[in-house]
Amino acid sequence: MQTLSACYGALPNMLGWHRSDAGGVLCRFGSALLLTGDADFGELFAFAELLGVSRVEWTEDSAVPYTPPTGWTSRSYPVLRRIGGAGPNSATIKTNFELRRCFEILCQSDAQFAREADYLPWLSDMTRRRNAGRAGAFVYADAAAACVTAKGRRSAYLSSVAVLPEKRGFGLGLALVRAVVAHPALRGRSIYTAAQSEPLAAFYRQAGFKALPQLFIITEKRNPA
To answer: What is the DSSP code string of 56-100?
Structure first.
């Protein structure tokens, strides 16, 4: 939320900010509604319908059961965290390169990313955030890529970690993540990520991340039949 506010707060056509009666803050970003804090779920999804939003994202305590409302489908992922700090590995990754190469690696490595990502909006978004010091893209051995898509004063979010299919099995992904979290730009920050499978969660644990009691929840409106 801090990253979005810093990068897009002056662009009223892209973002809308709203407060819930329960104390949460809602941020509209395109077709997605991001929630931090608390909200009444009945009112939240009624509001999402009113805005024409088709996707709502937030974190929730895993001990609290959640059932999506009628017409919506939900999936949840464990949240992991580690503290960033400078180290010798940070020199092994490239940070000054054309973002096009990062996008190519991600598309070639991740079918879901290739389906959902549109190059020009992605490039515009990452360029704006990176220029504002709120994001970073990293490439290792020209075969593995990762993005820090939200960097605040105390925290950062690591996403889109991928390795080219023909380069897997050599530890490049693990070397990349270890180098990213050792980068001086992330020193002292809590670095968060969400794992979409148990093997991926095990991968992040190997890189020094620890699971938190929260879940990252994505709820999307079903397409009409």
So the answer is: EEEEEETTS---PPTTEEEEEEEEEEEE----GGGGGSB-SS-HH
Q: Where are the domains of the chain?
A: 2-76+216-221, 81-213
Contact (CB, 8 A) for 217 and 58 = yes
Q: Return the amino acid letter for 181.
A: V
pLDDT tens digit sequence for 25-64: 888 887 889 998 888 888 999 999 999 999 999 998 877 7
List, for residues 196-217, the tens digit of each pLDDT value. Answer: 889 999 999 999 999 999 999 9
Starting at the earlier edge strand, list the strands of the sheet with 190-194: 15-19, 25-29, 32-36, 55-61, 210-221, 72-83, 190-194, 155-163, 144-151, 136-140
Residue 110 gets the label, from left (phi > 0), alpha (psi -120 to 50) or beta, of: beta
pTM of the predicted structure, to 2 decimals: 0.86
Please give the full DSSP string across 38-54, using - where no structure is assigned: ---HHHHHHHHHHHT--
- Nearest of 223, 17, 4, 25 to residue 135 by alpha carbon: 4
CA distance 157 to 96: 20
Distance in angstroms (rounded) separating the CA atoms of residues 146 and 106: 8
Strands 32-36 and 25-29: antiparallel
Fold of 81-213: Aminopeptidase (3.40.630)
Give the model's confidence band at 194: pLDDT under 50 very low, under 70 low, under 90 confident, else very high: very high
Tokens of 78: 């464990």
Whether pLDDT at 222 is above 50: yes
